[in-house]
Amino acid sequence: MRLTVLGCAGSFPGPESPCSAYLIEAEDFRLLVDFGPGSLSTLQRYAGLHAPDAILLTHLHCDHILDAASYVVVRRYAPDGPYPPLPVYAPAGAPERLATAYGQEDSSVEDVYQFYALQPGTFPIGPFTVTVDRVLHPVETYGVRLEHGGRVLCYSGDTAPCEALLRLAQNADAFLCEASYLDGVDNPPDLHLTGREAGEAAAKAGVGRLLLTHLVAAWGSEAHTVASASAAYAGPLEVVRPGASYDI
Ligand SMILES: [Zn+2]
User: Fold this and answer.
1) N or C: which end of the chain has fewer CB within 10 A?
2) How many angstroms separate the alpha carbon of residue 102 from the centre of ligand 1?
């Protein structure tokens, strides 16, 4: 499978990147995981306006979903449309949240999206075997394990350290893991990971490589985050960038 990063800025768009959005592709099927602000732009640049065959939203914080509201226009009002409903796997409140974000009261986006409410478990999406589980974040949030052809990609979603994250990442070939916080400062609990915590999770889970994401450019230090993660995890690691692609 192939991972293409469309956006990786943590919490709000950065000067160099939209917010979280990752396109994962196998057998000509493209799953878009998270659809944060700005990533509809890079979707067109790196994949195509109609590239996604399905969408998975890990949680309903605005930095992970808002361009799914913008995308309603793309599907509903396309000159060659409207397009058929696109499958969206998301926490249960997603239909109402996206309708509200779209901005028309008492309107629905269910002509554009076919929603499936996430709950912990394993299920297929296209050619992928997908396992999701609740991770540690203030709202209902899922970490994701994607398997295809004997290869495994784990995506942390947004989370603080937790056992579910370690289970999802167990022996993954690639671990796309958030590292929002800087080590050594007084961070709020049960919200996000530091670079060191991302590295510790990668080491405990025995992953093949660590791809750090969701850094907050304005508040953080990439060099500091990388150094902290490297101190805890001896395998290959890097900070992802928009447009970067990885064969997994
Ligand atoms: Zn979040």
Assistant:
1) C
2) 20
Cα of 78 from ligand 1 centre, angstroms? 31
Give the pLDDT of residue 104.
74
| Average pLDDT over every residue of 62-71 | 98
Contacts by 182-189, CB closer than 8 A, 24 or more apart: 182/219, 182/220, 182/221, 182/224, 182/225, 182/228, 183/224, 183/225, 183/228, 189/160
CATH architecture classification, 2-243: 4-Layer Sandwich (3.60)
Q: How far is the CA of 62 from the centre of ligand 1 (A)?
A: 8
Per the DSSP assignment, residues forming a β-bridge with 93 are none
User: How does pLDDT run across 169-210, given as a tens digit for each residue?
Assistant: 999 999 999 999 999 899 999 999 999 999 999 999 999 999
Mean of pLDDT values over 238-243: 98
C-alpha of residue 191 to centroid of ligand 1, in Å: 8
Domain ranges of the chain: 2-243
| Distance of CA 129 from the midpoint of ligand 1 (Å) | 24
CA of 59 to the centre of ligand 1 (A): 7
239, containing H or E segment:
strand 237-239
| Cα 137 to averaged position of ligand 1 atoms, centre (Å) | 7
> Measured between alpha carbons, how far is 145 from 12 in angstroms, rounded to an integer?
25
